[in-house]
């Protein structure tokens, strides 16, 4: 028996830092990742798809978002089981009980809207732990495990959402999923695989090889936070001995990258330019850039021109403030060849002196000098 395990689609997600039309393209890519599940299911021979929570970014969605999401799920053709998670819980405002969702839900889409066993077919069950609020007061997964029999002829797949206790420092959070309870249920043969959502990067938890986060099928955060996003898991459970094999398939198309670069002179700025220029798929790439070093005003102006250019080419080029420490200081003679005199020359000298000082006006003076250089050199962007 083979199925697809996915989670955290979070359809309707926005990223405020995306440029221009990048947000609509990113939203389309998230829906595209859902549509890609149909061909993947056919390719690997998957019997069904489980979505382990957070199908939607929240419950208050525009009608178009709901309709296009359901249309993408309709195209998958095999059954698709949706678990409400912390972003889209089954509360009073739930998207899953809205008139639009109810009216347009395709026949192949099933909401796991009650805790416990849901039969897929004879001999195969999903054990669901849906969220009913954003702040559960108990381990929802543990609550559905205790009553399950062991040693029968039924293959059971747990579908849960949330953080496993060994992965977080805050052990007092009541909603944490206890790994010990999962491994106990696996060891006694009551369940055979645990499909989890909440972590947006692919991850195996514990030592059994049967507890997995699939991660989000399209990236949602930078690679130092999500090292393995954009995956869907194809899970095989042998019908005779219940052995499990998990294969990963990449369907995500976007990249969110964190980069750090040292810039101390114009050669370093040129190297940064080359590195950014050689990156493929700029329209589907978000860069968070941390810069350290000490530059002259001339080199800082060159850096600004470089960054301005790539900010237009990438989906976003975002300053990484915590990893940025740039000092700018006018070099001796840097403004001697501007071809100006009199009052203008005196004003430039005053700006240079202010820029070299440590006062509150130093940064403004450096910015003014950099703009002056770009204007006099015809390089304004």
Automatic annotation (TrEMBL):
Keywords: Exonuclease, Hydrolase, Nuclease
Protein name: Nuclease SbcCD subunit D
Species of provenance: Mycolicibacterium iranicum
Homology family: Belongs to the SbcD family.
Pfam families: Metallophos
Gene Ontology molecular functions: exonuclease activity
Coiled-coil ranges from the UniProt annotation: none
Calcineurin-like phosphoesterase domain boundaries: 1-200
Classification via InterPro entries: Calcineurin-like_PHP, DNA_Repair-Maintenance_Comp, Metallo-depent_PP-like, Mre11_N, UCP033093_metalloPase
């Amino acid at each position: 028996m083979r199925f697809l395990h996915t989670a955290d689609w979070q359809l309707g997600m926005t990223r405020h830092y995306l440029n221009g039309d990048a947000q609509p393209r990113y939203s389309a890519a998230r829906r595209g990742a859902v549509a890609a599940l149909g061909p993947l299911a056919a390719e690997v021979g998957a019997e069904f798809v489980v979505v382990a929570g957070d199908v939607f970014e929240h419950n208050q969605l525009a009608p178009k978002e709901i309709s296009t999401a359901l249309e993408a799920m309709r195209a998958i053709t095999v059954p698709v089981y949706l678990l409400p998670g912390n972003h889209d819980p089954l509360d009073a405002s739930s998207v899953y009980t809205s008139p639009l969702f109810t009216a347009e839900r395709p026949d192949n889409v099933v909401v796991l809207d009650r805790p416990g066993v849901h039969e897929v077919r004879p001999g195969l069950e999903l054990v669901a732990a849906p969220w009913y609020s954003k702040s559960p007061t108990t381990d929802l997964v543990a609550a559905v495990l205790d009553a399950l029999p062991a040693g029968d002829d039924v293959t059971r797949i747990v579908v849960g959402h949330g953080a496993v206790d060994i992965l977080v420092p805050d052990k007092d959070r009541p909603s944490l999923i206890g790994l010990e309870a999962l491994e106990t249920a696996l060891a006694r043969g009551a369940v055979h695989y645990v499909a989890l959502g909440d972590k947006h990067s692919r991850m195996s938890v514990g030592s059994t090889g049967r507890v997995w986060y699939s991660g989000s099928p399209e990236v949602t955060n930078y690679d130092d936070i999500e090292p393995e996003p954009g995956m869907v898991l194809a899970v095989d459970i042998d019908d005779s001995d219940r052995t499990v094999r998990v294969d990963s398939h990449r369907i995500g198309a976007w990249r969110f990258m964190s980069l750090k670069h040292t810039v101390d002179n114009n050669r370093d700025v040129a190297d940064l330019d080359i590195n950014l220029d050689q990156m493929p798929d700029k329209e589907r790439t978000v860069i968070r850039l941390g810069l350290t070093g000490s530059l002259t005003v001339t080199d800082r102006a060159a850096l600004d021109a470089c960054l301005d250019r790539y900010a237009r080419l990438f989906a976003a080029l975002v300053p990484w403030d915590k990893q940025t420490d740039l000092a700018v200081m006018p070099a001796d003679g840097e403004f001697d060849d501007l071809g100006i005199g009199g009052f203008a020359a005196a004003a430039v000298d005053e700006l240079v002196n202010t820029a070299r000082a440590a006062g509150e006006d130093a940064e403004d003076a450096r910015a003014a000098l950099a703009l002056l250089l770009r204007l006099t050199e015809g390089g304004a962007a």
